[in-house]
Amino acid sequence: MTTNVHLFDHPLVQHKLTLLRKKETSTTSFRRLLNEIGSLMTYEVTRDMPMHEVEIETPLETMRSRLIDGKKLVFVPILRAGMGLLDGFLSVVPGARVGHIGLYRDPKTLVAVEYYFKMPSGMKERDAIVLDPMLATGNSAVAAVERLKEARPRSIRFVCLVSSPQGIATLRQAHPDVPIYTASVDRELNDHAYILPGLGDAGDRIFGTSDRRRSDVLRQGQAMQRPLSFATFRRSPLAAIVAPLRAEAGRRRCPPGRRAVRAHAHAHDRRHARPPAGAPGDRRVAGKGGFPGASRIACRAAYRHH
């Protein structure tokens, strides 16, 4: 491979990658295989990490031994597919810190759009390893690395499972200082920027969300025709953005004083609800009794004069 591009050619990695590519591989098997490959890749990615010597005591004597230099590593999966590699890396380095970069690729422009970014403290003393199963156009990788550099980590490495020549060229041109680790460099991209032969949409296969009708619509660069259900929306990253906006809009529509008056009125009506005038059980005397909803009107009048 070229400089700064490292290929995982270990037989176990290649064997498991072949099983991942098969279209009949189930979601459960896909996750398990990706986890196992992540564990195997960790050893190669961390092979040349800087180290320093410390003095320790064994049960028999004092000696000098080596530890990884600086603060703990930080693994940075690109949401959402990058989460599939994370567990494998953490199984080998359980003390590592984890950052997150949320990106999605616009189906029409293929440009990466950021929606989330969170890193641990002390990044200047940490080595960052970016995780994403696919390196297709390279736009998401370039955007992720560029955003990560703002946190000024000591070093950055990019790890992917399957890559394309175009994606590697794009990332190397934008960030020649970032080494790329990949298990395969596939032939090319198709007209919709999918890697060929590839393994499909890694995110859909990890989380079991693939839907042929929706995939076809996205590949055509059109909006999804089926409306998003409320349950799906609540699980999406967009919900965390919209919720505060809806709460603020609600506060503007109904100030605290008016909300208190409304709550009191509804509670009063429930406690003192009476049957309509003249109905069985109505004991009101004309001119002396009230009527349902009277308390609400009185409260509203009180609020206007408040």
Question: Can you characterise this structure?
Answer:
The chain has 306 residues and is α/β, with parallel strands linked by helices. The protein has two domains: 5-224, Rossmann fold (3-Layer(aba) Sandwich); 254-273 and 292-306. The chain has helices spanning 11-21, 27-45, 83-92, 139-149, 165-174, 202-207, 212-219, 230-235, 237-253, 256-271, 294-304, and strands at residues 5-7, 51-57, 62-68, 74-79, 97-98, 100-105, 112-118, 127-131, 134-135, 155-163, 180-185, 188-189, 195-196. The strands form three sheets. Strands 1, 4, 5, 6, 7, 8, 9, 10 and 11 form a nine-stranded mixed beta sheet that branches. A two-stranded antiparallel ribbon has the order 2-3. The chain is globular and about 80 Å long.
Biggest sheet layout: 9 strands, mixed
Cα radius of gyration in angstroms: 29 Å
Give the integer mean of the pLDDT values: 79
Q: Report the order of strands and helices.
A: EHHEEEHEEEEEHEHEEEHHHHHH
Summarize the structure.
Helices cover 41% and strands 21% of the residues.
